[in-house]
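Exam revision sheet. Question 4 asks you to relate a sequence to its structure. Input first:
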Amino acid sequence: MAISPYIVIGVPVNPATRATNGFSGVLDPRGGLRDGWQGGRDVMGTFPNDPSAAVINDMRQISTDYLPNRRIKEETLSLSYSFVSDIGEFKLNAGHFNYSSYNILDADFSIAGTYIISGRETGLGWISGQTRDSQSKQIDANFSTELASAQVTAGLFYFDQEQAYNWIFGTTSDSAPQSVTWATWPNDSFEFTAESKALYLQSVIAVGDRLELTLGGRYSEDNRSSHRLVVDPTTVEGTPRPFHVPSDDAVQLGDDSHFDYRVALMYAIGNKTNIFASLATGYMSGEVQSGTGSLLDASENDTIEIGVKTSLLNDSLYISATAYESRYENLTTSLLFLIPESDVYGSRSVPGGGVKSRGLEIESTWRPREQTLLSASITLDDSKFEEFYKRYVYTETDGNPRITTLDDGSRTMDVSGLETPFAPDLTIALNASHEMQLHEFGTITPSAAIYWSDSYNTETVPYFWSNQNSFWTLDLGLAYDMARSGLSFQAYVTNATDEEYFTGSDTFSKERAVVQLNDPRTWGIRMKLDF
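Answer key, structure tokens:
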């Protein structure tokens, strides 16, 4: 399995001009330099002279000289309480969460640093990673009661979080790859807080014998802060990783408030068939912008749904179909920027525009026999950008009229009306399980799941190299429940066919195309004991 979240797959170039091209080029199999060609990082060496400069054909193999340094620690304390009285039911869910992690990897994605590459006096490699520390608490309390022909639920929600995020960068040498000299110039490190409070009320009202009306509302207030951190220069040598201290920058503050609602109708057109429609709004609190620490505005969403649910064949077959349309406003996108005092590019979140998504979801479950369960789902999706812009990072544009050159020489592309990434037009999921009784020895249940996805792009700008072709996966399982002991086992194989497909992509500095892959074939055994 890969030890890095990204894999360099090459530099997109036009072989006739040797200039980088994201639309009609080819992938030059390198991450390093190539004489007379654009793109590539000198820290990875020169192709084809240095082995560190080439990509590896096996996408499950990583070229590295730095063993990853990782640690994750998580503590969770949760409380659930319910009390039922003559007037209604009170519920309380509360939790306290502590999380800390660091993940430091080989940032040049190569064996550079383990030897002296051509044209350089010493072999140097790059290391980068991130650390996170978070403390949060959450409380959700509500009360439900029956009032005449209505069921009413009222509640309050509270969330409080303190979090620190640090991006770190360093260099290693060929003599000691695990010994890192950490840089002090990275400015993408912040500590930020978020406090969210909300009041909500929902009522489900029976209007006659066949019609049910749902009315709900939620008022939310968010208070946020952000403060940039800097590397403590006393910790850049001789420590596993650098530590951070508050900068002299001013603390940035932001407040959001929002009212969201939901209106839904459910109508019974028969004893076993219902039709429904709903209108709902929502919002996501704004992000903290990398590089500046600015607090971005919230994103908003409006969704309309209509559908039907029915039961057939003596209730052994259940079918539902839902048509939907969602509009997202003030979504964020990312732009590359040159980090001061370095030749390394970072990514910065900025307001990008809107997205419109509409489609149809069909779900069905069928139990032809008591021991056999079959299910299927089909999703048809049409998701397009409305007004949305993204930076175009390559030299040649093929005369694309959507691309505009800005005053600083960079280019931005208007992707309005184009398909959004990771939104295949069609996906299909099939599941089957069959329970076999062994009497006093328990039960055995084999299962299988097939998932098929149409092709999709993994980038906001539809680069040729970021397109993922259609694929299918197969998961297998075998569960054994021992009778009367409370002990059960499950053997499983996920991605049994070892399919490879993109789960992410990006363009790193010097036009290196990188992708993320799904997990390879994975198998294991789980054990569960109920007592």
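Marking note for examiners. The two ends are 36 Å apart (CA to CA).
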